[in-house]
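This week, look over our next protein:
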Amino acid sequence: MLHHMLHQNWPAYLRILLALHIACGITAFVCAPVALLTAKGGKTHRRWGKIYFWAMAGVAVTALTLSFALPIYFLAMVAVFSFYACFAAYRILYLKDMYKGAQPLAVDWLAAIITVLSSFLLFLMGFLKPVMMRVGVIQVAGHPVSIVSIVFGLIGVRLGLASISQFRQPPTEKMFWWFRHMQGMIASYIAAMTAFSAVNLGPWFGNAWWVWLWPTIVGVPAIAIWTRYYEKKFAPKSKVTA
């Protein structure tokens, strides 16, 4: 979306922010596959995973700043839930002992609540102000709606509420953190793929809904399949009686 609005009259600080945003996005886009494909818990995985996390943090900070400066409020709300997926996945590594009674910090609660509120607003804006959202506007019963805003809003609300639910009712399974970590990191990479798709396919197809949603359509089932596979792998083995 940002590349469509690039203009010669932009002040220098906006150009610098855009350059940083793009650089962080490219870094995250390249680093994630390395972290995902290397041995989990190994030095390579941790090193590239941390680079990915901070690159996504850079994407979020620059996107939020640009979104209010331009303004593009859709970008601001998407930046919140996109980074939250990565943030929650990173934080869960420090909350592995929740099944033993460890408690989340105030920052964990605050991030989850902000994500729920921001994402719910994104969901509502998809119905109430679809033109302002700018992307994925379709007609439903004669009324315009931004299907992209609605879908992304629902995803963000679900992410935040899932964390809040887990904070209120701590998990009992020892490997719970594995699933939350990987699901969050993959979800955040889906967001990075979405940005890549919008930048590269947008000039050809505009803000069509599928330009923004195909990574989600492909990625969500992939997460479900991956989760099911590891649930079976980590399930207690039944003892064979003689």
About this structure: Residues 176-205 form the longest helix (30 residues). Residues 84 and 115 are 7 Å apart (CA to CA).
